[in-house]
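## Example pair
The file below holds two records. Each record gives the amino-acid sequence first, followed by its structure token line.
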Amino acid sequence: MIELKTADEIDKMAVTGQFVAETLAALSAEARPGVNLMQLEHHARARVADRGAKSCYWDYAPSFGRGPFRNVICLSVNDAVLHGMPRDYVLRDGDVLSLDFAVSIDGWVADSAVTVIVGDAADPADRALVESTRRALDAGIAAAVPAGRLGDISAAIGEVASAAGYRVNAEFGGHGLGRTMHEDPHVSNRGRRGRGMVLRPGMTLALEPWWARGSDRLVMDADGWTLRSADGSTTAHSEHTIAITESGPRILTPTPARAVN
């Protein structure tokens, strides 16, 4: 069932979204060579506690994971792309780090993810990969208009990937959200225009293009959570929470201007 949100409820989600975006910006800036992933996790925990927010990840135990997840942020490095469990790992120059963060404030959820390249030794192919997910996210958002179709969003995302030569895994993608982190509908990262449910004002979605430089297949770590590219190739992940309004899409997790690079 899809719950359409009122304008007031969307504004409340935007308050959560601002906190999510500011936290990701702060942690991204902190992600430098020599920093341990657990430092980022504990910084995120402190921010959640100080804000009086509730982590959507802590104690999360879906069917696809080996729950419960006992962290407040997903940190995925290099060939890891989704559900990366924070661990004792020191970041190195050139590492590709995806940060995925979702919380609830006053009962309303926002979810966002960014991928950054640590330090100064960026592989041009890694940079192109990260940028492709950002372009795909922009394309998906642009397609999220009233009276459009869910497949329009999926197709817009997938077309960016295909044009850049990347293969798309459709098993994990975007999703509805609002009072909880995962609600209907599932938003695939590939699809066909003109197909799927009609997009209506009040729908709130997390769009999250992700893919690897090589394989579109995933393997799971022994931790029961971290998903990696099957061939060990570098991955990237970008995500925003958006609302569909009468005047078009509204980004509820906008990147702070100071964090744009």
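Second record, same layout:
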Amino acid sequence: MARPRQFDETAVLDRAMQRFWEHGYEATSVRDLAEAMGLTGASLYNAFGDKRALYRRALDFYIENSFGDRVRRFEGRLAPRQAIGAFFDEIVERSCDAGRRGCMLVNSALEVAPHDPEFQHAVADVLMRIEAFFRRCVEAGQKDGTITSAQSAEDLGRLLMGVLLGIRVLARARPDRDLFEGLLRPVFFLLDLPMKGAIQP
């Protein structure tokens, strides 16, 4: 009979995520991870597999506790235009406070994905989820009249995804709130343009 694990899996996975997020994949050794997680090397391998497998678990954990969490809190609970605004409010806050770590997903796209087909697909899948979230918000906002229909929901969803990624890359080198908000103002102005064909006072 297998012995029950003597640790909180969520807590140790969070510590692994923090280590990878801070130092990147290549610069983080299994010894570093074991020390950060408070595990022996054998316990780490038994619970999570090798370093690459642990990185995938840590990345998935990061995504579900960042992007996934925002979608669950905002989509369907806030009006579509408000959901987009709230999403970016949190992104700006996080990008200013992350200590130049940027976004673990973007870091993975730049460091790991170019050399690993599995991670290429994993990152691409998340980017499609992000794009789909924005597209759904735009479609709903176009239906209720709070978002312009002068541009297609598909194009606006892609624009929002691109701006999100730009902010998260800039956060690595220039975590400047004025810069981020300056990027967002023209985007929100575009979203808030009068509905195509609407009669203006």
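Notes on the second record: DSSP finds ten helices and no strands in the chain. The two ends are 75 Å apart (CA to CA).
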